[in-house]
Specification:
The chain is built from ten helices and twelve strands. It is an alpha/beta fold and about 350 residues long. Helix 3 links the parallel strand 4 and strand 5. Helix 1 crosses helix 6, helix 2 runs parallel beside helix 3 and helix 3 packs parallel to helix 4.
């Protein structure tokens, strides 16, 4: 099958391309000219450079007549001009859909985010997922809060409108995807951050971590089994920050925080950082746990897992262990390269 992948040079996109090639598909990669192609080395791909916000540059990719499109390209960084989030994530999705209509694409798999579904009520037990939310929950915060979430929500609405006009679109909503080979974030992924800057305190709240291979499997199963117009959670393990930091401490050997930060204070910190984004112009949403403090991003994807014929999620500790080994190996390579250049 001929498949077009946008965002193919990213963490999830590059792994998706590897799996699609292994399955025998003919893969077309649409990427920005300045993107690193390191994660795609050695793959037999049709490479087309362009930008999803630029109509003329999109046409050559769709002139290849793909049967399926995986649309993963998105902007995550908080910047001084958050209109770019909407233009890239929602406007780019609209352009992808328009081109898909033009050439008769059979199905689009849109990768959104579980952030568009919202977050759970507070829980008191790390193992209690009774408060975890599913696909039927809705994000209730104003647009000024979590602008990335709103930009992806607008992208989903573009998809829903297209569905009304006959386009076959399936939406996938992973949360925090982790694993090795995140080449763009060797120095800033969750494990690297913990190694370089071990947290000084435990913060309230929790997150859902999903292994990258599980997220990719979910995307492919959405192509194969997803119901037109539906959105599917692609999740893994719900972890309180206390549990997560303890796990990372065991894996990395770095000290786990002992001091507990009051929920009211952690909420004020995250609200400050979201309100005064200009002070943190290059902050990546999924680099710093403080952005999620005070809230429980706990999800129940049982319905999605059943509908998409997905196996149980991978062991998240094992995934973090593999990520740690990849990070350490990457550090050593960087050090050796620097020494050789000097």
């Amino acid at each position: 099958m001929k498949i077009l992948v946008t965002g193919a040079t990213g963490f999830i996109g590059s792994r998706l391309c590897h799996v699609l090639v292994e399955q025998g598909h003919d893969v077309i990669v649409f990427h920005r000219r300045e993107s690193s192609l390191e994660g795609l080395d050695g793959l037999p791909l049709k490479m087309i450079a362009g930008d999803i916000t630029d109509d003329p540059s999109l046409s050559p990719a769709f002139d290849e007549k793909p049967e399926v499109v995986f649309h993963l390209a998105a902007r995550h960084v908080h910047s001084r001009n958050n209109d770019r989030l909407i233009e890239t994530n929602a406007g780019g999705t609209r352009r992808i859909i328009q081109e898909a209509f033009r050439v008769g694409v059979s199905r689009i798999v849109l990768m959104s985010s579980a952030l568009t579904i919202g977050y759970a009520d507070a829980v008191t037990n790390d193992n209690d997922i009774t408060a975890a939310i599913d696909e039927n929950h809705n994000w209730l915060n104003p647009p000024s809060y979590w602008q990335f979430a709103w930009s992806k929500l607008y992208a989903e609405r573009e998809a829903q409108w297209a569905g009304l006009f006959g386009m076959d679109i399936v939406i996938c909503n992973p949360f925090w995807v982790v694993g090795p080979n995140d080449t763009y974030r060797l120095w800033s992924n969750l494990v690297s951050q913990f190694i370089q800057h071990p947290p000084k305190s435990i913060i309230n709240g929790g997150v859902n971590l999903v292994a990258v291979d599980d997220a990719v499997r979910g995307l492919i199963h959405a192509m194969e089994y997803g119901e037109r117009g539906k959105r599917y959670l692609l999740c893994g393990k719900n972890l309180s920050f206390s549990h997560l930091f303890g796990m990372l401490s065991e894996i990395t050997g770095k000290p786990a925080p002992q001091l507990s930060l009051p929920g009211s204070l952690s909420n004020r910190i995250v609200n400050y950082r979201l309100r005064f984004r200009n002070l943190f112009p290059n902050a990546e949403l999924f680099d710093d746990p403080i952005f999620f403090s005070g809230k429980y991003f706990y999800y129940n994807d049982n319905e999605s897992r059943l509908a998409l014929h997905l196996p149980p999620p991978s062991d998240i500790r094992e995934t973090l262990q593999k990520t740690y080994e990849w990070v350490i190996n990457g550090y050593e390579k960087q050090i050796n390269l620097s020494a050789a250049q000097n």
